[in-house]
Structure prediction request, 288 residues.
Amino acid sequence: MRVAFVGLGVMGYPMAGYLVKAGHQVTVYNRTLEKAERWCDEHGGDHAATPALAAAGADIVFSCVGNDDDVRSVVFGDDGMLAGIPAGAIIVDHTTASANVAREVATAAAGRSVGFLDAPLSGGQAGAENGQLTIMVGGEEETFARAQPVMDAYAKAITLIGPVGSGQLAKMVNQICIAGVVQGLSEGLHFAKRAGLDVARVIEAISKGAAQSWQMENRWQTMTEGEFDFGFAVEWMRKDLGIALDEAESNGASLDMTRLVDGYYAEVQELGGNRWDTSSLIARLEKD
Prediction:
């Protein structure tokens, strides 16, 4: 297919590369031109000066940017994707954003006979680089069926959750669950150290039982050693938790733990951990 990819951050850069490897004709747009040029030198695709030009003639336009305002900036206006994308094409937004902005874009896209999927990601930078992302999707079944085989290039699991906005809501569930798991693991490791236990032996024992988690398997050692240069940054986690907390205000969900952990991440930021990964919750427990 002819596809476009808008946003070459730590996720989008390798994802767009996998689309080339899958045989698609790819045009990219990035706010920083030098990064788009570097991507083209590496992968052999084309780059465009605006999202509208990138979208011109595309069958599917993918985007992966920062937040709601960033989504609006690349979708709307004279230079936005909707100004260039042909009727019958599809926009797939991989940004982690609000369900409201997903519905806003979907409505505008429908007015131009363009399909839309909100498709936030889980798996982080490593998942993007290895083509092993998990994708939660909101949208119509027919649109999903057309886009799924293309997304397979960089995904290990793709699930249609429900109508537009459902992908973003599922991503909120994902981040809520991660926040609780990382906080529990942080306290467990901190407790084990204070109790004088051999942490490695404790993990060997409990990781075979009900306490097991991806975070435990992959982060316990680096957390114990105070190394936080992996995965998803604290500032982005706080953005995501903020989206979930805002949604909870409107749907009536009680997110007591999520609000608490968001405050703990604020403390990590005060320690200078804005760009540390999410496992750095343990740092606030061991700062003394």
